Amino acid sequence: AQSVTQLDSQVPVFEEAPVELRCNYSSSVSVYLFWYVQYPNQGLQLLLKYLSGSTLVKSINGFEAEFNKSQTSFHLRKPSVHISDTAEYFCAVTPPGTYKYIFGTGTRLKVLA
Amino acid sequence: DAGITQSPRHKVTETGTPVTLRCHQTENHRYMYWYRQDPGHGLRLIHYSYGVKDTDKGEVSDGYSVSRSKTEDFLLTLESATSSQTSVYFCAIRQSQVNTEAFFGQGTRLTVV
What we know:
Chain A has 113 residues and is an all-beta fold. Chain A is built from no helices and twelve strands. Chain A is 0% helix and 51% strand. In chain A, a hairpin with a 7-residue loop joins strand 10 and strand 11 (102-103). Chain B is built from no helices and eleven strands. In chain B, strand 9 and strand 10 form a beta hairpin. Chains A and B meet through strand 5 and strand 6 of A and strand 4, strand 5, strand 9 and strand 10 of B.
């Protein structure tokens, strides 16, 4: 069975500072990896995904995540955050060929002025 | 938006009453999911569907049933609502096994009093 761990439930950071949101997963098979973002009172939106190939994937709004197979991690980073990045971020996995997604418990990013 | 409409968006109901939440999609996607979101638990899968009349249980299916009589509609029913079912419910859709992204609705906030 797969599982996803997001150790940090809340991460406060000042505007324009860098941030890293951690995600570790457990799986005996290969998985696809995702980061979703949820703004207040909204549904989840896909931020970026790793399926195969280059281990560094990037989003259009400056976030990036690196797949590390040996560490079974998929940490999300941004070099300089904005107030508008304040949201909850969820890491998720799905084994190829299956229907199900397994989500972590989420990390609430709060960007401070 | 990915063409997903959840209704109602908010509902307050009494313990012991039946409740049905509706998810409607205009994308003709094959897979549909119901998740619940609770603080400290992230998103947990209740039920999912891989086609008309084809459904299966997720990790927290007790007390819930689903039906999918048309491609575009996936109904979640709480047969006899309990306070532990107070939550935010999200519907998600996915086009196929090849297309890996899941798209989420805006959510339904259900309060059982």
